[in-house]
């Protein structure tokens, strides 16, 4: 068992809305993983920042995040992603899902991990996904 952490949780920790102890209380001794999707979302936000001080702080966060074990996106992940995207499209949800969230879901499903998120709405209808929503973030 392991946990894949949604980018919004990483951001909540950096902003002081959650602590590492809060996450540990949920994950216990289970391993916690980082996705290339997390890195891409954080880097996207950093590159859009205009404030140099904020950008420096965010780059430090990105460096800390990179210390976590990184999951790879491989052929199996891609197939899970494609099947999920098609299933959601057929169900009528269509393009309402964010592609990055679906990649995270595909990684979690492939590895039988729990996705830890602050936004259950993004994942509630993803078939086969086990997720846990952190409230109050």
Total number of domains: 1
pLDDT averaged over residues: 92
- As for the CATH topology, it is Rossmann fold
Query: How many beta-strand runs?
Result: 4
The CATH architecture would be 3-Layer(aba) Sandwich
Structural class, from helix and strand content?
Answer: alpha/beta
SSE sequence, one letter per element: EHHEHHHHEE
Determine the strand fraction and express it as a percent band.
5-15%
Assign the CATH class: Alpha Beta
Radius of gyration: 15 Å
Concise overview:
This protein is α/β, with parallel strands linked by helices and 137 residues long.
Give an overview in words.
It is a single chain. The mean pLDDT is 92. The protein contains 6 helices and 4 strands; from the N terminus they run βααβααααββ. The longest helix has 16 residues, at 75-90. α3 packs antiparallel against α4 (52-65) and α5 (75-90) crosses α6. It has one domain (3-133): 5'-nuclease (Rossmann fold), CATH 3.40.50. By secondary structure, it is of the alpha/beta class. The chain is globular and about 45 Å long.
């Amino acid at each position: 068992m392991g946990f894949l952490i949604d980018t919004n949780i990483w951001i909540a920790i950096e902003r002081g809305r959650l602590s590492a102890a809060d996450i540990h209380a949920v994950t216990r001794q289970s391993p916690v993983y980082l996705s290339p999707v997390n890195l891409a979302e954080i880097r996207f936000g950093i590159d859009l920042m205009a404030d140099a001080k904020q950008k420096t702080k965010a780059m430090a966060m990105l460096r800390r995040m990179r210390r976590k074990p990184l999951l790879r996106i491989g052929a199996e992940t891609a197939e899970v992603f494609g099947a999920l995207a098609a299933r959601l499209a057929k169900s009528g949800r269509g393009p309402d899902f964010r592609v990055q969230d679906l990649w995270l879901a595909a990684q979690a499903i492939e590895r039988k991990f729990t996705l830890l998120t602050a936004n259950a709405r993004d994942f509630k209808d993803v078939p086969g996904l086990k997720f846990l929503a952190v409230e109050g973030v």
